[in-house]
């Protein structure tokens, strides 16, 4: 059972456009992470959010954690071809474990 | 640091053969994770170790899969016998686990692309 649903699954946009990717669950997370994966490589951590309502910015990327800690969003402003990749959210459900559950992924293609 | 090292990068084998994937975690990391990624199922956790001890192997698909971590610098994932449905990219990741309440960063290797004919 997939606990983390991401939307959209695929997104193809032109350079300069804005976009938002969503990560949703019916469960409460103790923390949530966003990773980006480029072709032929492993995922690389972008950010970790731990507090409900938290907003973090990484250059043109803005990450938000929902107030109830059940959802998160990633907004990219003025997308560039270098933003192309698979974006994955991952959640730590707490307890005595450091096990992450990964979302279904959003494949982003930014056309020049 | 060299990062997480996986070998081989690509493996093509025939159904029924044994396959062994290898991983060297980042030096000093005490957690190691094995994942499988496919288009249909996404990135799935197979098993993970803390301090060389298997903690959760609930993601291992069946008895054909086994994983070992004989020491802090080496782990293997073995499939025997292999089947075409095992074709996927297998990732190893490592992290420095401090406490259950701490969210650690997982560092992924480049993956092994396995094709079972």
Description:
With 112 residues, chain A is mainly beta. Chain A is built from no helices and eleven strands. Chain A has strands at 5-7, 10-14, 19-24, 31-37, 44-49, 55-58, 61-65, 71-76, 85-92, 100-102, 106-111. In chain A, strands 2, 4, 5, 9, 10 and 11 form a six-stranded mixed sheet that branches. A five-stranded antiparallel sheet of chain A has the order 1-3-8-7-6, with no helix packed on it. In chain A, a hairpin with a 2-residue loop joins strand 6 (55-58) and strand 7. The model of chain A has no long low-confidence stretch (mean pLDDT 91). Chain B is an all-beta fold. Chain B contains no helices and eleven strands. In chain B, the strands form two sheets. In chain B, strands 2, 4, 5, 6, 9, 10 and 11 form a seven-stranded mixed sheet that branches. In chain B, a hairpin with a 2-residue loop joins strand 7 and strand 8. The termini of chain B are far apart. Classes of the chains: A mainly beta (112), B mainly beta (117). The interface between A and B is medium-sized, with 26 and 28 residues.
Summary of the model, kept short:
The complex is a heterodimer of chains A (112) and B (117). With 112 residues, chain A is an all-beta fold.
Key words describing this protein structure:
heterodimer, A: 112 residues, B: 117 residues, mainly beta, seven-stranded mixed sheet, four-stranded antiparallel sheet
Distance between the termini of chain A: 37 Å
Radius of gyration of chain B: 14 Å
- Number of separate helices of chain B: 0
So what's the oligomer here? Answer: heterodimer
Strand/helix succession of chain B: EEEEEEEEEEE
User: Poorly predicted ranges of chain A (pLDDT <50, ≥5 residues)?
Assistant: none
Alpha-beta content class of chain A: mainly beta
Strand content of chain B: over 45%
The portion of residues forming beta strands of chain A comes to: over 45%
* Low-pLDDT runs of chain B: none
Instruction: Categorize the overall geometry of chain B.
Output: globular
Helix-residue proportion of chain A:
under 10%
Number of strands of chain B: 11
Give the overall form of chain A.
globular
